[in-house]
Design goal:
Radius of gyration: 21 Å
Largest sheet: 7 strands, parallel
Order of helices and strands: EHEHEHEHEHEEHHEHHEHEHEHEHEHHHH
CATH topology of the largest domain: Rossmann fold
Number of domains: 2
Shape: elongated
Number of strands: 13
Helix content: 40-55%
Distance between the termini: 8 Å
Structural class: alpha/beta
CATH superfamily of the largest domain: Glycogen Phosphorylase B
């Protein structure tokens, strides 16, 4: 089977795509894969660990409202991306094109759907969030299959031919990784202390980093708790280390990025993060207690909607706007992490919501679609 995967830009799109590809290859080691994305997205870095995936960069740009000639700029790069994708489709002749969202998914999925009228090419899109992205909403009327993570998202695709709820796939290492002393040593942490993992997605979060740094007084009083802070860049990490050292904080470790995030999840007693769909799938898949701080700049406020899905099931604590305005996130974190009953309840409810079979379900749907096309 030949698969063209398209989309990316952020980890929220790339990591589900990688999980789907890993599942397809587990079922069929002979599968051929081309990944269409951009050099500027994290896909170019993540895919280096999977040499069996051929990376094909195209030129694509998202909208930047308020920018002069924005629509003209987007239209120009869309045209370039369509030409580049058309050439790739002719050379690779995929059996299926799978889009995971983001502006780089638009040209391959659209052209794949149009080519499907005359060639045995099938098209699939996967929506990770509770609120569907613009590219996926628009493409849903043309593709053969729409896969969604939350049942409530179904109504957002009224013109889709077929919609199936599968959940959001996570990489297999998250399900296999166990808590071990080697994990603590990897980050220079103490296995005797309770560990709080703080991160803001693949690009980091200056707001979450600042919240930790503004709570050093509380941290210094709670030496039985340690924080693993992920900043998203080396410059931000260096600045955070400097400020922590100045305040004499020894129970916080700062890193710019974590390649082996499954190890960090395994040793974490509490996770503090944004509410991107992939992060929530990893939290629920691993059954981890979490405090969620949705990024309010997300399109259609979809991170808040993602978080509310968990909050309704008492599977997370949602940091209110008031807590953030008052810079009391660290105080909330310390209150929760010392409450064993709260941690157990949050983790239990998160685990109940976890969709650990999302990968196999998606693989089965894709394989069935390709077989139906006679490929």
């Amino acid at each position: 089977m030949r698969v063209m995967m398209a989309g990316g830009g952020t980890g929220g799109h790339v990591y589900p795509a990688v999980a789907i590809l890993d599942e397809l290859r587990r079922a069929d080691p002979t599968v051929e894969v081309v990944y269409v994305g951009t050099r500027r997205g994290i896909e170019s870095r993540v895919l280096r660990t999977r040499p069996w995936v051929r990376f094909l960069p195209i030129h694509a740009r998202g909208r930047r409202p308020g920018t002069r000639f924005d629509r003209l700029r987007v239209a120009f790069w869309l045209a370039v991306g369509l030409v580049e994708t058309a050439m790739a489709l002719l050379r690779f002749r995929p059996h299926v094109v799978v889009g995971v969202g983001g502006y780089s998914s638009f040209p391959p999925v659209l052209l794949g759907a149009l080519a499907g009228f005359v060639l045995p090419i099938r098209t699939v899109i996967h929506e990770q969030n509770a609120v569907a992205g613009l590219a996926n909403r628009w493409l849903s009327r043309f593709v053969d299959l729409v896969l969604i993570s939350y049942p409530t998202s179904r109504e957002q695709f009224p013109r889709a031919r077929r919609v199936v709820t599968t959940g959001n796939p996570i990489r297999d290492e998250f399900l296999r990784q166990e808590r071990a002393e080697a994990g603590y040593r990897m980050f220079g942490l103490d296995p005797r202390k309770r560990t709080v993992l703080v991160f803001g997605g693949s690009n980091g979060s200056s707001d979450l980093t600042e919240e930790v740094l503004s709570g050093t007084r509380e941290l210094s009083r709670r030496q039985e708790v340690q924080v693993l802070l992920v900043t998203g860049s080396e410059a931000a990490a260096e600045e955070a280390r400097r400020r922590l050292a100045k305040d004499g904080i020894v129970n916080a470790v700062v890193v710019p990025y974590i390649e082996q995030m499954a190890v960090a999840f395994a040793i974490a007693d509490l996770i503090v993060s944004r509410a991107g769909a992939t992060t929530l799938a990893e939290i629920t898949g691993c059954g981890k207690p979490a405090i969620l701080v949705p990024w309010r700049g997300a399109t259609d406020d979809h991170q808040l909607e993602n978080a509310r899905v968990l909050e309704r099931e008492e599977a997370c604590r949602l940091a209110s706007d008031e807590i953030m305005v008052r810079h009391e996130l660290v105080r909330l974190v310390l209150d929760v992490v010392r409450d064993e009953a709260a941690l157990a309840r949050l983790g239990r409810n998160a685990h109940r919501m976890g969709q650990r079979q999302a990968g196999p379900l998606i693989r089965s749907e894709i394989q069935g679609l390709v077989r139906g096309a006679g490929a």
